[in-house]
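request received
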Amino acid sequence: MSEAENTADCIFPHQHLLGIEGLKEQDINFILDLADKYVEQNRKTNKKTDILTGLTQINLFFENSTRTRMSFELAGKRLGADLINMTSSGSSIKKGETLLDTASTLNAMRPDLLVVRHGSSGAVKLLSRKVNCAVLNAGDGTHEHPTQALLDALTIRRRKGKLARLTIAICGDVLHSRVARSNIHLLNIMGARVRVIGPSTLVPENLRELGAEVFHDMKEGLKGCDVVMMLRLQTERMLGGYFPTISEYFTLYGLDYDKLSVAKEDAMIMHPGPMNRGVEIDAEVADDLTRSAIKEQVEMGVAVRMACLDILTRKKRQAEK
Amino acid sequence: MSRYTLYKNARLLDPATGMDMIGQILIHKGKIADIGQKITTPEDAEIIDCKGKCLCPGLIDMRVFVGIPGANYKDTVKNTGEAAAAGGVTTVCVQPVTDQIIDDMARVEFLDNRARKAKVNFIPFPAITKQLEGKEMAEIGLMSRSGVKAFTDGNKSVANPALMMRVLQYASMFDALIIQHLAVPELSENGVMNAGALAVRLGLPGIPTAAETIMLERDIRLLQSVSTRYHAAQITCRDSIEVMAAAKKNKINATAGVAVAHFALNEYAIEEYRTFTKISPPLRSENDRVAVVKALKDGTIDVIVSGHDPEDPESKRVPYESAESGVVGLETMLSVSLELYHNGFMTLLELLAKMTCNPAKIIGLQAGRLEIGFPADICIFDPDAPQKIDPEKMISLTKNTPFDGRPVQGRVLKTIVAGEIIFEV
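response:
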C-alpha cells in the first residue's frame, strides 16, 4: 500500500489520483507524455487496445455529469476494461446508504478502478481509504477536478509547446470552482504564472496563498495573457447574492473581443463547459476557431483519462505477469 | 453668467480650512473665482454687501426622501428643491424609497432628468438591494460606473449578514459608499417608539437601542475584513456611539450621521401621542440625546442630516401605532442645529462641518468648501435672527415637523447654487 515502494518499478508513485496538489512536475509530465500517445491512438480508426482487458472499472457518480462521465467511459472502453456506471439516481445511494457503506459494498465486488464524483469536498479521499483499488477523483465538491486540469494542461502544451512561464488567467467563479483549484495547483507546479479574475465576492483575496495573482478588473488581469480560461458561472446559485444581474456580470466579466484585445494577440481561450453564452463568454469569441480551444479540450479529455487509467493500473498489471 | 459677482463684507466660514474672517468672495461662471480679505475685482462685477453676515458653503443633506418616481403626493422634486433652498441646503441626497424604488440606472436617470427642474443639486442614492428587499444586490457595478457614489436601502437595513458581507466585498471594487440604516428587523419592526419606561407608560410597543447597536456592531465586525467605505446613516444612542468610537480608533473605514431630531428632541416630545414625532430610529432617552451631542462635538458623529421625509396628513392623522414614520426637516435643519452653537456645545465651524465638508468628503463630492475652483454653492445666514418655527409658512408640501412653535435663533438669508441666487429673504 505504501506509495514509496511503487517508485522502483513505476515512475508514478501514487496509488490514487485524488488531486493535483501534492503531485510533482515529473508526475504531471509523465501523464501528459503518455496522453500525447493516446491522442494519436484516438485519431485512428481503430481506437481500441486491450491493456485493461479483464480489469473492472466502476464510474461512481454521486453528482450529475454528462461529459466527464462519458469521457471516462470512452477512456475505459478504448483500453478494454469492463465498465459499469453507477449514478446516484435509482441506486442504493438514493435509498440512504452512507458513502462508506457504498464504498465497502463496491469494494467487495473487487473492482480495479473506481472513478468517483461527489458533491462534497473531501468525499473522494474519504472513500479511497476504504477500498483496495485505484481511485480517480472525477470532481469532489469545490475542491479538485484533477483530470480537467490535466486535460487543460495538455491542450495548452500542445498549442503553446510549453507551460512554464506562460501567463494564464482563470476568470469567473473561482470561489466555487474545483476546476480552478486544480488548475491553479497544476500551473504553479509547472512554473506558469497564474492570475485569477472576477468580482471580489467570487475571487477572494486569499487566493494569493494558493499562488495566484488576484484581479477584480478584467482588462487589467487579461493584459499580456497567453491563455484565458473561463469558468462556468452557476447563475441560478449566484444571482443576487454574489453579483447583481447577468447583464452587470457580462458587462464587467464577460469575455468579449474588447476585453480580449489587451491579452496577447495569439492568446488562446478555454472553457471547461458547458458554456453560458452571453453570461461569461460572448458567443463570437467562443466560436472563434483560431483562438478557442474548447473543442480540443474535450478531445484531450479522453486521452488524458486513458493515460490516468493506464498509469494507475500498471503496478497491478505488472504484478500479475 | 459671464459676469463676476462679488460678495463683500461677509463673515467667511469655511469649516474645511477653519477660515473664519470678514472678507469677500468672487464668483464667476458658477465657480468660486477668488476668496480672501482683499481680492482684485473686475470693474464690471456685481457687488453684493453681506453686511457682516455669515457666508458658508451650501449645506449638503445626506438623507432626504422625495416622492419621485411615483409618490408625488408626498412632494415633488421642484418643491423639495425650494424647501431645501429656504433651508440653505444646496445639495440633496435622495433616498431610494418611493413608490417606484430607485434601484437601477433607468430610475437614477429618471430622477436625474426630473432634478434638472430643481434649483438645488439632487444626488440619487440608489438601493443596495433590489426593491429594498434585502435579498439580492442591485446593479452596484453598473450604477457606480455611471457615476453613482453611494448606495443605501433608505429606511431599511440590509439585515442578512451573508448578503451584507458580499455587498461590502462587491462595493469595494468600485469604491462605492455603503450607507446602512441601523435596525435589526426582528427587534424593531413591531415597535413605534424608544423602549423604556415612557413606552410602558404610554402603552406603546418599544424599539430597544440594541436594535440599532447590534446591527452596527455586526457591520463593524464585517468591515474588519474588507476596506469598503461604510456610513451609518444615523446613530442615536450611547451604545452605538461607543461602538462607532471604537471602530474609528481601530481605523475601520466607517463614518456616522445623525438627524437633527435626535439631538434636538428626546422621547418626551411624544407627549400626547403626537405622530409628528414618530421617526426611525425613534426619539431616544435624554441620556442618549446628551451622548449624541457629545459625539457630535468629539467627532464620533461626522454628519448632521435633516432626515427630511414628507408624509401626507392622512398617514399622520391616525393613532400613533398606525402612523407613518418621518418628519420634514430641510427648512429647519440649520436653525435648529444652531442651538448647539448658541448653547455653547460647539463652535460655528465645528457645527457647519457636519453639514458641509464632512458629507462632501464622505460621499466624494467636489463641494462643501469655500475654495477656488469649487462650485459656488453658498449659504448666507444670520446666526442670531430669532424666529418661531411655523409649519404654515413652510414650503414643503406636507407640514409634518416635530418643531412646531419652537423658538430658534438663526435664519437663512440667501442660498446660492452655481453662482445663482435661488433663495432670498
